[in-house]
Amino acid sequence: MVIGGGVAGTVAALALTRAGIRAHIYEAHPAVAHGAGGYLSLAPNGFDALKAIGADEVVGAWGLPVPTTIMVDGAGTMLSTVAGVDGVPPTLVLTRAQLLGSLVEHVMSRGIPYSLGKRLIGVTETESGVVAHFADGTVAHGDVLIGADGIRSTVRTVIDAAAPGPVYAGALGFAGIAANSGAHAEPGAMHVTRGSVALGYWGFPDGCVGWLATLPSPSPMSAEEVAETSPARWLSRLRAHYADHCPGADLIARTDPAGLMMVGALERLPAVPRWYRGRMVLLGDAAHAPSPDSGQGAALAIESAVELARCLRDLPPAAAFPAYEACRRERVESVADLVDVTDRAAVGHHIDWEAPVAAVQRTG
C-alpha cells in the first residue's frame, strides 16, 4: 500500500511494479494534482532515476531543458556560469502539475490501482501485514505500507509520535510567466539570484520568461490561505519587494495576475530519526524534504522511491528497510542544505537498477 499519490508515491508504485510487486496507491485528495503548486526544476539525477523504471520519456515530453545555470546579482550582472554535467541529462523545468500528471497517467497505463479520497487516519499492524484505516470508514490490507504522504505525513507520526514536523523557511513561494521579456534570459539557462531578494528565471522559445520568486512573511501560510488574497494584490506586493531588482521588477510587471501561481509557505524537514517501524516505511518528503534552495526535492524523492523498490525486490521487509535507509540517509542529508544547486556530486548520481541489494550487517 502506497499512502500518497504525489511524485514519490507514483514513482514508488511504478518501480515496485517493475520489480514484480503489486502496488496500490491511496491518495487523500479527491482529484489528481490537487494543490500541485508552481514551477519546479527536475535535477538531472531525478530524471536519470526515472530512466531506471522507464518513466523518463513521459516526463521529458513536458520539460524544458535548461542545462546551464547562471548566477546573477540583483542588478542583473552575471557572477558565474556552470554548464551541464557531461554524461547526464539536463535539468528540466516544468510545473508540478505537469510532472505529477504525467506520472499518474503512466501509472494508469500500467493498470496500477489509484484510489482518490482516501485520507489515512490510522494504521493497525498484524502478524502478517498492515491495515490502513481511512477517514471515509473504509480499510485496506497489505504486506507493507509506504508513507509517501508528504511533509505533514500521518504515517511519520504513526511510526514515531515524537517525529519532527516541517520548519518554515520564512517566505512564501510564487511563480509566473512574463510576456515579451525574452531579452532577459539566455536560451537554455536557469538564471539564479540568491539572498534576501531571491529569483530564478528562464526563457521559453516563444520569448516569454518563466520565474520563481519568494516573498518574506513572518508566519507560514498554506496554499489555501494564500489563495484568499487576490493574485493582483500578491503581484503588487511582489513588485514592491523586487522594485530594485533587475530583471525581477520587469518580469513581475509583465505578468498577468490570472497566470500567477501561488505556492504557499516554503518549508524543509529536519532529520527524521526513524524512517521505518515494523512493516511501515517513509518515503519522499515524509522522510526528507530538503531546503527549497537545494533544487533537489523532487529528484531526491524519485531516487528514494526507486531505491526502496530495489530493496523490497531483493529483501524481505525486515531487511529491506534497513538497507533502504543505509543507502539513502547519508545522501539526502548531505544534499538537504546545498547552496550550490549545480553540485556535481548531487546531480551526477546514478542508480543501477539491475544491481542486487545486500542486507545491512547489524552490530551491537
Topology:
Layout (H helix, E strand, L loop, with lengths): L1 E2 L3 H12 L6 E2 L12 E4 L1 H8 L4 H5 L3 E2 L2 E5 L5 E5 L9 E4 H14 L4 E2 L4 E6 L4 E5 L4 E4 L2 E3 L6 H6 L7 E12 L10 E5 L5 E5 L5 E8 L6 H4 L4 H11 L6 H6 L7 E8 L7 E2 L2 E3 L14 H18 L2 H19 L8 H4 L17
Parallel strand pairs: 1-2, 1-12, 2-8, 5-14, 12-19
Antiparallel strand pairs: 3-7, 4-7, 5-6, 9-10, 10-11, 13-16, 13-17, 14-15, 15-16, 18-19
Helix pairs in contact: 1-4, 1-9, 2-9, 9-10
Account of the protein in words:
It is a single chain. This protein has eleven helices and 19 strands. The two termini are about 30 Å apart. A seven-stranded mixed beta sheet has the order 6-5-14-15-16-13-17. It has a six-stranded mixed beta sheet with strand order 8-2-1-12-19-18. The chain is globular, with a radius of gyration of 20 Å. Helix content is about 30%, strand content about 25%. It folds into two domains: about 220 residues, FAD/NAD(P)-binding domain (3-Layer(bba) Sandwich), CATH 3.50.50; about 100 residues, D-Amino Acid Oxidase, Chain A, domain 2. About 45% of the residues are buried. Strand 5 and strand 6 form a beta hairpin. The protein has about 375 residues and is α/β, with parallel strands linked by helices.
Any idea of the CATH topology of the largest domain? FAD/NAD(P)-binding domain
Q: Write down the domain tally.
A: 2
Shape verdict: globular
- Report mean pLDDT, rounded to a whole number: 92
Main sheet overview = 7 strands, mixed
Helical stretch count? 11
CATH architecture of the largest domain: 3-Layer(bba) Sandwich
